[in-house]
Amino acid sequence: LVQLKELNLHGTKITTLPKSINTLKQLEHLVLSDNNITDYTIAINRLSALQILNLKENKISNLPKSIKKLKQLKRLHLDWNEFYTFPNGIHRMKQLTYLSVGHNKLKETPNNLRKLKKLYYLDLSFNSFNKWPESCSKVKSLEIINFILTVLFSLEMIVKLIGLGKFKSDAGAM
Asked: Residue ranges of the alpha helices (H) in 50-123?
């Protein structure tokens, strides 16, 4: 199993990961979605080849500081968890191109999000934003922002989202 590239433990209802998972040094794709995981820190912090980590539908409320050790990580799925604040350490994942944090309870994004120079896809859908997260505008590489049914649907915010420039409230301007 030492040469294993992909491990899919979707829906197994596990609550923790065995420390021995760290021996899978060639693992590139780890699916842990639809489980009851709350803590996985020790189990994955040495998976240096990991490129895709799927932690959707668990009970995770924060990321460990050691997440920054996953230097090859390109895709991170954190949907349907228990994040009230944006996950710590995300800005340190320099290879990240795809980040999905939909269906949480987020109200804002951090300013350091702009440090993700390769991020092209960001899913913020079904969260609790009450204003446009300005830090998203500073991520120059973003091509797709998924903002479906987020509590933020004023005309001004939609204009910012599609990049039409400044909104003016008088009838003839836009």
From this structure: none
